[in-house]
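Entry 14. Two folds queued back to back today. First construct below, sequence then structure tokens.
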Amino acid sequence: MVNKSVRVASILFLLIILSACGKDSNRTALAPKSAVELATAWVEAENIIGAGGLYRENEYTAFTHENNTEYHYLAGYLDSKKKLKVEMQKVVTKKKAKRFIRDHGIIKHKGKLAQPEMEVDAVEDEDSLLQWDIATARELKSKSRKMTFELTVPIGDTRTAKKFLVTYVYVKKAGWRIDKFNE
């Protein structure tokens, strides 16, 4: 009887230790406020990277590439894939960073990263009115390492809002990162 009690107690103790020492024992669910903060950080990073980064004086250089397409080199702190990915992965997953590079036509030219020149369109003008500082988030789905939120962001003084569907993934040793942003 004592041996059986000791075995049961040992098993319970082992289960408690294993659950406390699990891979992600420190991981907590992503709070709506943190989801908005991470999305806001991504939007800011995306805008800066989309402009080529923060250039030093006389650093901006444009050139014509295939099919007479105008490109410009990224700023020095973003001019390699490694540097760009490190910067992006502060907020997004590796997969999202790769998709961003591909979708934005970023290429390597003469040893540096470059991207096509882009014109500002009406959608980007509307996006500049988005008030991320007062955005709200509503959790839609939750799994152990993945959460999806619907973010509602007011547009200027129009009394309207734009909705974004954002999927976050928990990355070991890094925390929550954006994997999909309105994709």
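Second construct, same run, same settings:
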Amino acid sequence: MDKSLERRLSGYEPLWDEWFVDSFMWEDDLGSMFSLKDKNGRKSAVRVLTVDSTFCGRPLSELTAAAIKRINARLPLAGEAFLVSARNFTVKNIENIGAPSVAADILVQTDDYRPFENDCQMPYVTARKLADNICRGIRTAHRKGFTFGDICPKNIRVDSEGHFCMDAPCTYLPALADPTYSAPETFSEDYDLFKADIYSFGLMLYQLFNGGLLPLQKEGESMENAVKARLEGQPFDPPAGAPPDLGRFIMKCCMAHPESRFSNMDEVYRELSSLPIDSIPPRYEECYVPKDKRGAAENKMPEPEPVQPKITEKMPISEDKESRGMRLYVLVLLYMLLVAGGAFLIYSIFFLK
């Protein structure tokens, strides 16, 4: 953890006039989590993300304004099940002595969530629970007019009761979105944000029930190439580890044309909740590919090809003449040996009786 961040946090206390940092919890590329407590012993948490305009090439005011807008849109969702809450927030510009600030700490008060860690094959029943929880969280957000735009595994959290919750990082910008889980239409100017979320949700489930591989991705092959092929419209098969009914459901979420997908998340949840979980499909466990084998080709340096002699190249003239002379000498020598052998054979037949 960045010690300078810890020092800055102590200068911000008390947060929202009543909270004090208790301890560091965890961190990832979406920020650092700290537990909070007040004078009465109540518990809470804060996530801190430091944005730096010098790294992303955008004015600090633009970055913080976009974050504030997104957090304000999330505040009405606080306390809803299967969603990461945002209860309070503040933005603190980091002092830049003698010059305007170029970085800021964005602090969002939230609840106790843990990162979603999926380093091995998730049990089938747990995978179905994740699908159900995230589907219900997205449905709730859509009902209140909030869309995510970045539905992907790294934005899944686990609450204190073991439920899977969907997060919506405050730094999301459509222009900088990761295309890995994006719907094809998100790269156009005008599209349905709700239908795009349905696609991303389906794509995330596709990977979950396809052994960890994205559509068109094969073991050891590049994820980037698979994403490029998908966005270019190349068709793909249903996820290998899903039973037929779940596979059809996922494929409908992932239809390339928005009008061919489910109408809304209410319809998505009705369909998903109607699918039985009475048995574990054999292919679910068989198709799993460990993380270290999914993108092996991406990190593997190509081996240098052995240099082969070019047989079409001509030899130097002097060497060519020398070779022809040697061949002629050998032929003459063989001819002389043949004649001598024949003469000896004739002499043996007629004169050595």
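Quick look at the second one. Residues 83 and 166 are 5 Å apart (CA to CA). The longest strand covers residues 43-52.
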